[in-house]
Design goal:
The structure holds 2 protein chains of 2 kinds. Chain A is mainly alpha-helical. Chain A has 2 domains: 11-77, Arc Repressor Mutant, subunit A, CATH 1.10.10.10; 79-131, no CATH class. Chain A is built from 5 helices and 2 strands; from the N terminus they run H-H-H-E-E-H-H. Chain A has helices at 11-24, 37-44, 48-61, 78-103, 107-140; strands at 64-67, 71-74. In chain A, a hairpin with a 3-residue loop joins strand 1 (64-67) and strand 2 (71-74). Chain A is elongated. By secondary structure, chain B is α/β, with parallel strands linked by helices. In chain B, the strands form 2 sheets. Chain B has a 6-stranded mixed β-sheet with strand order 5-6-7-3-8-9, sandwiched between helices. A 3-stranded antiparallel β-sheet of chain B has the order 2-1-4, with helices on one face. Chain B starts with a strand and ends with a helix. The relative contact order of chain B is 0.19. The chains are: A mainly alpha, B alpha/beta. Chain A binds chain B through residues 1, 5, 7-13, 38, 41-42, 44-50, 53, and chain B through 29-31, 163, 166-167, 170-171, 173, 191-194, 210-211, 214-215, 218-220, 222-223.
Chain lengths: 141, 231
């Protein structure tokens, strides 16, 4: 029983969120074949019907595509993945700004604090970005 | 066709009504939690489904049939108390199950026994309470049945074994079979269930999917249960 779930939300939405994250982060690569519903359900420790529902949600969004005989695959449409990634980022930024707003910080100060933090992280962060780009290139081929 | 269907099912013991006008349908392909406080009627319902009790009124059907020899072929039942002859060892029990049930999958049982470190030579009498429960559950889960009725299957075992058992239930998932698990340990089984039935004082209080409850109440089934049945 690997995955843990928050209690205030349906399990299928949390599974869908987790699977989206695996795709946008590149852990599941574009075009990669997904494990069977049963195997994924086993890994997550959840009911197979619930996992199926999460996958159907991803199919509707175009993140995953089902092929009648050979199973489910991560989309090869990098634009769909990029859009989802952007949506994730925007959500993070929104909640960050909300928290900063609660602290009563003016926008200008938020920006300068953020820049300061980014320059302090400097080396490590830029390295990670370039690695991510490399993965994207790989996915294209 | 429903794999288990009760309609207006009532069972009384003397002046006590254990099940009161219960109507319920369970379709194939689901893992259902039968949840309720002590004395709410869970065990009675499972016994009725196995033909160990007869209803006072109403009916209970397994794949359209009243409980009988035919239905025992397709129902794998774990009672709420020990029922195996305690002088037998595991190998003899495997033989017994193989004789009794054509759907018994011996290799599956052996694999689980090995995983849970239970030797075939061990007699039931020599087992701890927890090991006995594991052995019983392995026998029951090793049948390729259409309906598994498990009365408190994880109450007496340690958390690691509990995980293994729940994993086994997922691994054995078959879209044509259903599993009904009666338990108090809701938090442990919740992710594995896709439907839950709450029963209280012999009546079905609620029958929904796990995610419906979470969506509507904003709470886990476990939290919701505690709230509904607060003492």
């Amino acid at each position: 029983m690997e995955w843990s779930f928050r209690s205030d939300q349906p399990i299928y939405t949390q599974l869908a969120e987790k699977l989206r994250m695996e795709i946008v982060s590149g852990r599941y690569r574009p075009g990669e074949r997904l494990a069977s519903v049963r195997d994924m359900a086993l890994e997550a420790g959840v009911n197979p019907n619930t996992l199926q529902r999460a996958l159907q949600e991803l199919e509707r969004e175009g993140m995953v595509r089902a092929q009648r005989t050979s199973g489910r695959f991560v989309t090869e449409d990098l634009q769909v993945i990029a859009q989802t990634k952007k949506r994730f980022a925007e959500e993070q930024i929104r909640s960050f700004l909300e928290a900063m707003g609660k602290l009563g910080l003016p926008e200008r100060e938020i920006v300068s604090l953020l820049e300061e933090a980014l320059s302090r992280k400097g080396g490590a962060a830029s390295e990670r970005v370039s690695q991510g780009e490399k993965e994207d290139e790989h996915g294209n081929t | 066709m429903a794999i288990l269907e009760c309609s207006m099912l009532t069972k009384r013991f003397g002046s006590t009504t254990a099940l009161d006008d219960v109507s319920l349908r369970i379709e194939p392909g689901h893992i259902v939690g039968l949840l309720g406080p002590n004395g709410s009627g869970k065990t009675t319902m499972l016994k009725l489904a196995n033909g160990l009790l007869t209803p006072n009124s109403g009916e209970i059907r397994i794949a359209g049939m009243e409980p009988c020899r035919e239905t025992r072929r397709i129902v794998s039942y774990l009672p709420d108390r020990p029922y195996l002859a305690d002088w037998m060892n595991v190998r003899q029990l495997l033989d017994l199950f193989e004789d009794f049930y054509t759907d018994f999958d011996r290799p599956r049982a052996l694999e689980m026994l090995e995983k849970l470190h239970i030797s075939e030579e061990m007699r039931i009498r020599e087992m701890s309470k927890g090991t006995r429960e594991k052995a019983q559950l392995i026998l029951v889960m090793s049948r390729r049945a259409k309906l598994y009725l498990l009365d408190e299957p994880i109450g007496g075992v340690d958390p690691a074994t509990r995980d293994y058992i729940l994993e086994t239930i997922i691994r054995n998932y078959n879209p044509e079979a259903s599993v009904v698990i009666s338990t108090h340990l809701i938090a442990d089984v919740e992710p594995v269930l896709d439907e839950v039935v709450f029963i209280s004082n012999g009546r079905v209080f609620l029958h929904k999917t796990t995610d419906e409850i979470r969506e509507e109440s904003g709470k886990s089934v476990d939290q919701y249960f505690r709230e509904v049945f607060r003492c």
